Amino acid sequence: MQRIPRDLARKYAFDARDTPLLQVQPGETFEIETFDASTGFFRTEADKAIPANRPGFDRIPPLANPIAGPIHVAGAERGDVLVVVLEEILVDDYSWIAVGPRRGPLGDSARYPELSREYTTKIFKHTPGPSQTLRDGTLHFSERVSWPITPFVGTFGVAPDREVVTSLDGQGEWGGNLDIRDAAVGNRLWLPVQHPGGLFYLGDVHASQGDTEFTGTAAETKSTVRLRLELLKKRSIPFLRIEKPGSIIAVSAAKPLEAAVESATIYLIEWLVAEHGYSITDAYCLVSTCPDFRINVYQMCNIRQLRYVAGAEIPRKYLMDAN
Predict the structure, then answer these.
(1) Rounded to an integer, what distance in angstroms lies between the CA atom of residue 220 and that of residue 232?
(2) CB 237, CB 190: distance < 8 Å
(3) Residues 299, 312: Cα–Cα separation, whole Å
């Protein structure tokens, strides 16, 4: 099996000029060893998020959120859709979160000086589950609070059409730093191809995350991701899509949040019309009346140029009943 080792998973931009690290066939399984968002800086609670202490933070934008790639997919052409199938995400034995001055919405808070005056790093231990591995392991937030490890890929995408964007705050219909909790094992991620070969990148795995990633950092961790890339020829989509076993999700990124919600919902309506038999009127009415229609707010943190990420989701059982 082909693999990208961790020491090569240190790109900080989606750039079509990069030389591919792998050449794969559609449907071929391969592995990527990813760094955490700090490229390995945070190891203990003594490692604080002080910019002057962090390698690469003298650059603008800083060298953070490393990704691996690009991966060239044989036969992929502009106008196709690349489907990312995540087969396994195996996380490291710990994850971390770092807060402090000028980090997140309370990083300048006068009300909570502990957050605006002091840097705090929390290290979360991961312990194996019944399988004796971290595939079903537990994340320990504290001595009293824990939950199952629920890993997902925070940053992924193809090289965008005519620009170079950073892995720290680049986003678009082609992917980017989106922190979508549904970018998880068992789901299928659709991306519009914009260059020959697709030129796919991936990194920034989280061991877990709450809606919005409020502080701007989740449970950041290293990982090994096993995946394959499939092709849908000559398909056009306006933005990233996600297929789950029980539902479909149309994604958008915009500011303000209501713009992301509206565009994601419109993208879902268009999907229902184009591929699932609904009329435009019925699809429009469905999203307002169906009690199982949901809006997911995946990422809403005020960091550099990041836009807010929303997903409009409808269960598959309603697709079968479309007329």
Answers:
(1) 32
(2) yes
(3) 14
Q: From the CA atom positions of the chain, what is the Rg in Å?
A: 20
Q: How far apart are CA 139 and CA 272, in angstroms?
A: 38
What is the chain's length? Answer: 323
Which structural domains are found in the chain, ordered by start?
Answer: 3-232 (2.60.120.580), 244-320 (3.10.28.20)
> d(Cα 134, Cα 155) in Å, to the nearest integer?
21
177-219 pLDDT, tens digit per residue, is 999 999 999 999 999 999 999 999 999 999 999 999 999 999 9
The conformational region for residue 111 under phi > 0 = left, psi -120 to 50 = alpha, else beta, is alpha
Confirm if 173 and 240 have CB atoms less than 8 A apart.
Answer: yes
Q: Which of 135, 147, 144, 287 is nearest to 208 (CA)?
A: 147
233 close to 39: Cβ distance less than 8 angstroms: no
pLDDT, tens only, 1-16: 999 999 999 999 999 9
CB-based contact 183:83 (threshold 8 Å): no
Distance separating alpha carbons of residues 35 and 92, to the nearest angstrom: 10
CB contact at 8 A, 299 and 175 = no
Q: Which regions of 55-145 does DSSP assign to beta strands (E)?
A: 67-73, 81-91, 94-99, 120-127, 138-140
